[in-house]
Amino acid sequence: MPKSKRAQKYTSGRCDFCGEERPLLWRCRRCGFTVCQVCLSQDQKYFSCNAITWLCPNCLNWETI
Ligand SMILES: [Zn+2]
Ligand SMILES: [Zn+2]
């Protein structure tokens, strides 16, 4: 059961992008979309990841890492 629903930059669980269970996921604080580090590093063009920020593909919100 999820205990805390506080908005956090990162979490653990299922990546919304690849569907895999991951110990560390980055989380969009606007819409709750999660993406794992594997997806971020593999799809740097898609996420425009520059190790500081990533673009949420769901709501186009820029999140900092
Ligand atoms: Zn993933
Ligand atoms: Zn989002």
Associated small molecules: zinc ion
Question: Which value, in Å, is the CA radius of gyration?
Answer: 11 Å
> From N to C, what is the helix and strand string?
EEEHHEE
Low-pLDDT stretches = none
| Whole-number tally of structural domains | 1
The first-to-last residue Cα distance is: 26 Å
Shape: globular
**What is the strand tally?**
5
Average pLDDT number: 86
Largest sheet: 3 strands, antiparallel
Tally the helices.
2
As laid out across the biggest beta sheet, the strand order is: 1-2-3
Class inferred from helices and paired strands: alpha+beta
Percent helix, as a range, is: 10-25%
What fraction strand?
Answer: 25-35%
Supply database-style keywords.
single chain; 65 residues; alpha+beta; three-stranded antiparallel sheet; two-stranded antiparallel ribbon; 2 helices; globular; binds zinc ion
Give an account of the 3D structure:
By secondary structure, this protein is of the alpha+beta class. It has one domain. The protein is 15% helix and 32% strand. The strands form two sheets. A three-stranded antiparallel sheet has the order 1-2-3. The chain has a two-stranded antiparallel sheet with strand order 4-5. A hairpin with a 6-residue loop joins strand 2 and strand 3. The longest helix is centred in the middle third of the chain and has 6 residues, at 37-42. The protein is globular, with a radius of gyration of 11 Å. The model has no long low-confidence stretch (mean pLDDT 86).
